[in-house]
Amino acid sequence: MENINFLKNHVMSLIEYEPELTEKIESILEILLKVEAKNLTNRKSKVHLSASAAVFKNEKCYFIRHPYLKTILLPAGHVENDEMPLDTAIREFFEETGFSAVVDKKMKNFGLIDVNVIEIPENSLKNEEEHIHIDFRYKLLLDEERERQEAELECFLLAEDEASGEFKRYYKYL
Description:
Layout: H1 4-17, H2 22-34, E1 47-57, E2 60-65, E3 72-73, E4 76-78, H3 85-97, E5 101-103, E6 112-120, E7 131-142, E8 155-158, H4 165-168
Parallel strand pairs: 1-7
Antiparallel strand pairs: 1-2, 1-4, 2-3, 2-8, 5-7, 6-7
């Protein structure tokens, strides 16, 4: 991740259409200012980037059960050295669900709908210490022209009333 200024601007532009996120975004920007750009894709650093995909079908959103955290989450993963968070969201959605997704050109800011700080506990199986993810969340479109491929994880669709509170506000982007 070389372009930290792009990331900061990307996050800041979220305030324009999600003003209720201002305080959260300002705290995330403070974290980004303290981290060297090269460490944002280093899985051994205390802070690194991840990205999630909110993809809908028939007014339901795709979710996975995280194999280590044992919780229901959006398909997501770590941002790699040669990626921007949007690329990661598209790649991880494909890897974890077997479905393809594309950018929703009707959305502002490449579909960025949220940014969160997620505290990740120590994982001795992966030899990872406790750390945080700055998770970029994108609303993408299901590419229904492509056939589903083999997936890493089981995925399932949840309606708004079935999703946890953290994800309920994403349904307004249907």
